[in-house]
Amino acid sequence: MEQFYEAIENKIKQAGYNEFVNGEEIYNEICDEIEEKENGSYIFMSKKDDDTFFEYKIDIMDEEFNLSYIIINTKDKKYKVDFDN
Predict the structure, then answer these.
(1) Which tens digit of pLDDT belongs to each residue from 28-45?
(2) CA distance linking residue 65 with residue 49, whole number of Å
């Protein structure tokens, strides 16, 4: 799992977002949000601080999920992190 967390962190850095992110925290937050949800596509938002929130696009399937993208919204800029490419 550690490699998965690092992959999330690296993709976010590659998108140009240089603030600290924790891949394990993001993964756990997603798991909490999708618990008991039906199969389908969902968008979740998570406020990180007064000026920053993350928007997650997640596809839920029977035994797994796919994190399609994260959009990191700051007061100055938006960073799109595409996990499908």
Answers:
(1) 999 999 999 999 999 999
(2) 26
34 in Cβ contact with 42 (< 8 Å): yes
Quick one: CA torsion of 63, 84, 70, 40, rounded to 10 degrees? -40
Q: State the DSSP string of 43-83.
A: EEEEEEETTEEEEEEEEE-SS-EEEEEEEEE-SS-EEEEES
pTM of the full structure:
0.91
Beta-carbon contacts of 23 under 8 Å, excluding residues fewer than 6 positions away, are 4, 5, 6, 7, 8, 9
Distance CA 3, CA 35 (A): 23
Q: Judge contact between 12 and 70, C-beta under 8 A.
A: yes
**Angle, vertex CA 25, rays to CA 70 and CA 77, nearest 5:** 35
